[in-house]
Amino acid sequence: MNLLRRRGYIPMSSYKTKQDFQGNYICLNCNKLITNKRRKRYCDDKCRDELWTKNNHVWLRSKLLCDCNHTCQKCGKKPRKPFTEPDGAITQYLDDSKLILDHKIPIALGGEEFDEKNLWILCSDCNKIKTAEDAKNIAKHRRREKGRRDKWEHKPEIPPIIFHIQEKMDI
Ligand SMILES: [Zn+2]
Ligand SMILES: [Zn+2]
User: Fold this and answer.
1) From the CA of 50, which ligand is nearest?
2) How far is residue 135's CA from residue 107's CA, in Å, rounded to a whole number?
3) Contacts of 83 (CB under 8 A, 6+ apart)
4) Residue 89 Cα, ligand 2 centroid: separation in angstroms?
5) Residue 106 Cα to ligand 1 middle (Å)
6) Which end of the chain is more exposed for a tag (fewer CB within 10 A), N or C?
7) What is the CA angle 130-76-58, rounded to 5?
């Protein structure tokens, strides 16, 4: 199994275009025919932006941060950072740098890379635990895959007795 890595974003020029039978281009975002002859992947700016958002972790992270109100979706922690004001007073500021965009099902295990349903926001502590769990699951999965491959390669030949039985049953 190939290990897929997080890419962050895919350049739009590498998105595969979609065409109908007549060779007209279809918008990758809304699936409608693109009327502008110079465009191949999206019909208008709105579709371009939506397409970009759907395929970009930076955008997805900022969107999900808003959706979850800058709170870890596992433990509910809202990371804060102390800041000393010019008058010496200490204020607690929201610290988004400790909130990490994480794949619920890792990409290496077939999880969707840019699907919101497979993404959530975790604080750095929860992310550390989750990453360790993921690594364990990926290793387990690889072992299983390898076991399956070995079994296939050393598949025992079917003993001839089975053929005799089948022949008899056919009659
Ligand atoms: Zn469109
Ligand atoms: Zn957390």
Assistant:
1) 1
2) 12
3) 90, 91, 92, 93
4) 28
5) 30
6) C
7) 65
Task: Provide the whole-model pTM.
Answer: 0.65
Give residues whose Cβ lies within 5 Å of ion ligand 2: 72, 74-75, 77, 123, 126
Distances (CA, A) of 169 to 18, 93, 159, 165, 166: 52, 78, 17, 6, 5
> CA torsion 20→25→27→31, rounded to 10°?
-10
Q: Give the tens place of pLDDT for each residue, 55-105.
A: 888 888 999 999 999 999 999 999 999 989 899 999 999 999 999 999 999
How many angstroms is it from 9 CA to the middle of ligand 2?
Answer: 25
Q: Among all ligands shown, which has an atom nearest to the Cα of 47?
A: 1
Residue labelled with tokens 């992310």: 127
Q: How far is the CA of 156 from the centre of ligand 2 (A)?
A: 49
Distance CA 53, CA 12 (A): 11
**133: CA distance to ligand 2 center in Å?**
15
* Residue extents of the structural domains in the chain: 13-55, 71-170
Q: Which pLDDT tens digit goes with each residue over 135-168?
A: 999 999 999 988 888 777 776 666 555 555 544 5
